[in-house]
Amino acid sequence: MASVGPSAASTQPALPSGPAVFKTIPYAFILPEIVCGTWVWILVAATSVSLPLLQGWVMYVSLTSCLISLLLLLSYLIGFHRNSENWKVLDSLYHGTTAILYMSAAVLQANATINSEFSANAPLNYQLNSAASFFAFLTTFLYILHAFSIYYQ
Description:
Number of domains: 1
Structural class: mainly alpha
Mean pLDDT: 83
């Protein structure tokens, strides 16, 4: 007969801290999320923003997500979570919400890419907007992977 005592609680995987964050799925996705999100922000900032309302939202989502993800990564690196199970819920909610926001930003960036095809200085802006769209969809995919892979640990 199996005992359901304190030893049963210790079978749950511990949240990583320190360098183990970079070796543990889904937490290893945080650094690529930050890097790809930074590329979105840089590439949109490098274009002549012809649709400020659309691309303003893209820049807001990418910059805010990069900063919050950086804070989350730093908190995992220094062990601020103290192995609390609430951090898994917080992490999943954050990454799920950010995936939805990034999907909206990626679609708006794709729309801005289509509109920039026929504008002045078209080749350069179109190429920058295309790259920003690619990284926006890639970042969305990374956030979705992170949010769902927490449940499969």
